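G., the chain you wanted modeled:
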Amino acid sequence: MAWYGETPHGGVPFLLACSLGDGAGGPAAAADAVRHLLRGAGLSPTGRLVDATGEPGPSGVVVVPGAASLALPGFDAQFVPPPEWSDAVVERGHVYLVFATRPWPSGAEPGDRAVLAAFASDRETLRSAAHVLLPARTPHTG
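Predicted structure as tokens:
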């Protein structure tokens, strides 16, 4: 889920990735699977911000008009971001990814703004997530 947020450092394009926790093993198995995926991508769910904008490699976000794609080793996801998010990506050249190990709240609709705000600001969600500044590319920046 993509959203644009104001911070003391200006507007930031945020991206939240998480499991729905609805697999056969339930939320605990989903959290373990996400931790494994993150370690395989060279990320650590410690709650500390990692700046990967200057690192070469396949990780990043590609933004085209009306759509975007997140790419990490072993993980790809396409999504439709809000226009202000895309504008901020073009301006900043990076995305602040929060890849949560905690599953999305059971029964909550993905995209529900109130649930997103509560989930993305929850202390436990943030402490157990990988936080990464990822480079963003557009057709104009390559």
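The chain has a mean pLDDT of 89.

Shout if anything looks off.
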